[in-house]
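Homework help board

Subject: predicted structure for assignment chain

Our instructor gave us this sequence and asked us to write out the predicted structure in token form, then describe one feature. I got the tokens but I'm not sure how to describe them. Can anyone check?
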Amino acid sequence: MDDPARKATGQLGAYAYGSRDEMESMTNRERSAGDVLKDIVGNVQEIIRSEVRLAKVETTEEITKAKSAAIILGAGGVFGLFATGFVLLAAVYALSLVVASWMAALIVGVVVGIAAAIMISRGLDEWNSLNPKPEKTIETVKENVEWMKNQTK
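My token output:
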């Protein structure tokens, strides 16, 4: 029986995916308090492991988004530096030679500056959309706490 859901849930999956005969044999035999406590501790450990795995997945997703935003911000910064260089070059041309070559350098500098502004704006939008809080993990932890409260009643 190669059920990925059963593998993913570990020990807890045995209860959810057990056969009818297995379930009846579990309920028909008398279980000691030690066995019950051992099962509860095992289930709590499995829940904690599952929460850690979920937190890792969510954190990895957010780190990937942050990396993308950082690359775009870096590219925008590089273009901004080039824009500054071209604008300064245009100023040098304007002061040293009053000819059309400074106009070309100024146009290139302005175009690169506009490209840098667009890229920086887009990178900041992506950066601001990051959500470092693992929402799914928080929700499942709350559900698990509620489940554990119900088990102790």
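Reply (TA_rk): Your tokens look well-formed. For the description, you could write something like this. Helices lie at 4-9, 11-17, 20-28, 33-96, 101-128, 135-151. That's the kind of observation they're looking for.
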